[in-house]
């Protein structure tokens, strides 16, 4: 075992650090630029250097690097330390771009990929519907081809960033007579049009991260379909096999624990710092057992991914491990807050990465529940772990093939 | 970054697992569990011949010169196999002499321990849950008097490494006498524990005992964590297999989400924690500043997680899981040993808190 990255990679790290010290924060004339423009220029340089957009072909604005899990990890670590802008994050870069690269027409890639990874256009995801959550393939939003256009009617829900997005990638039923999974197409739909209405969905924290999207005779051109008609289900499963972020979720858990320890040192219990209380110490150390397991398990996944070996069940456990830790952290935080637990949370437009004041911890107390549901509820995760990780049979009623 | 076992370590672990699969299947674990001594000389001899008695001891004394991580992956394999026997006490006694003994003491004992010619054990625990070196009260001296509890296989051992007041270590030879041994009727009948009452037993202090004893404790914590990981993983494996064979309502019970989710939760509890004991074992030899705390966290976390898995395993087997006949109880009790030996999890969480400066 060797927890260092080795000479070759430490040289690479030094290179990245040198690049960062030359370019971030913006220097010289760049320092005068507006914040966004400064970030844009920095990203362009970092891409040219091969540090960002590593999985994206050069012709579509990426840096087209050989996959290297360790380099990717070092870049993330150093960019984070320097607080420099990394790859543009969002549903567009995470989901749409990989899908387009794998399944899109050349003109679609040309039109959409570069502006998306530069952050010039934003996307939202039209998957979930009020009646179609875990059973997503039962979705009902219809798209009919009328002349040269698709005409779309239906409702989508839990749509993050719908209020700002330029386009939606959307699963629609286009072949109403085909079996359930075979009747769906993957359409790209402009959001700024009269047929699209976005209503914010207020969540229990008071913030509104999600929206409902009502599609009433919304229109999109005939060829804005990714993959063939009726193949939308398969298209939506496409993922780009490049570099995984093996230790990202665990790094978040580690940071949360540090925040919690800080909270325990700065709040009182029985007139003394809470961290001197035996129950608090026990709970902190219990949480740390989970956090370190998650963190070191991430090192192992990084090692295996870097060697091209499959980490197996470990990677299926990451999401549930993170959400369980988030939940335990939030519960202890609420206990540490004492009477501040009576306060209304800070209404937040996005997930609080590291809570600081009482109100943001209370927001986290509720928000951690949202994280446990987003992207597949904890119970769905347990199904995945049981079925794909332990080889247990699928649910008897979970029809994943042919019926309508 | 290389956080994975080497090919040699993987091979070592597989070899031990294979050996125990062949020589100590669950039926044999049960025979030993129900037998008079909990000890199978032939099984132990085979382990000695594989080099397991001196894996971590320097090669100049006939050991293999390996590290705690190697010993720990063996411990995991033994926990998986549920193999009864004196591995733990013997390994810690050898380590104590290696780390705390004078050259003469090392020369005198290590070759014989590595060759399995003598059997060693550690006598650390005292009444009131006093396991840690700084808690030992038994007076040091050329003759020892007082009681040590929960000494693994004391009745079989040829030499005891005894923890004494001030955190020192002393050697007591079985042949010299001056003590009385009584079985404590421990719950894990695969690792028998005895009470040793010393009454003027001739003893020889280990030259650097007080420096060695916390290290020996830390190594013990890691080995217990590894054993618990192996045992917990085995129980999960047993539950998954049972769920795939037992039928109700015309289908295997693995189809039912309630059980599927329980098994998924068990996997979530145990599987990532393997890395926790790896890290602690690695730290023992390579990141010494972090070693005591990593060992404490690994022992606290893994033995608690494994214990919960053992409880869940009884439930997952239904009524049969509660019977003496069902093998779950063998591993359940093994984990009870791992959890309590050298101090329960809350003791080590408090130590971890102190070591962090909380």
Key descriptive features of the protein:
A: 404 residues, alpha+beta, Butyryl-Coa Dehydrogenase, subunit A, domain 1, Butyryl-CoA Dehydrogenase, subunit A, domain 2, Butyryl-CoA Dehydrogenase, subunit A, domain 3, four-stranded antiparallel β-sheet, 10 strands, 43% helix, globular, B: 358 residues, 3 domains, four-stranded mixed β-sheet, 12 helices, 13% strand
Tell me what you see in this structure:
Chain A is 43% helix and 14% strand. Chain A is α+β, with helices and mostly antiparallel strands. Chain A has three domains: 7-87, Acyl-CoA dehydrogenase/oxidase, N-terminal domain (Butyryl-Coa Dehydrogenase, subunit A, domain 1, Orthogonal Bundle); 97-236, Beta Barrel (Butyryl-CoA Dehydrogenase, subunit A, domain 2), CATH 2.40.110.10; 248-389, Butyryl-CoA Dehydrogenase, subunit A, domain 3. The longest helix of chain A has 29 residues, at 278-306. The model of chain A has no long low-confidence stretch (mean pLDDT 91). Chain B has 358 residues and is α+β, with helices and mostly antiparallel strands. Chain B folds into three domains: 7-114, Butyryl-Coa Dehydrogenase, subunit A, domain 1, CATH 1.10.540.10; 120-209, Beta Barrel (Butyryl-CoA Dehydrogenase, subunit A, domain 2), CATH 2.40.110; 211-355, Butyryl-CoA Dehydrogenase, subunit A, domain 3, CATH 1.20.140.10. Chain B has twelve helices and nine strands. The longest helix of chain B has 37 residues, at 209-245. At the A-B interface, helix 7, helix 8, helix 9 and helix 11 of A face helix 7, strand 9, helix 8, helix 9 and helix 10 of B.
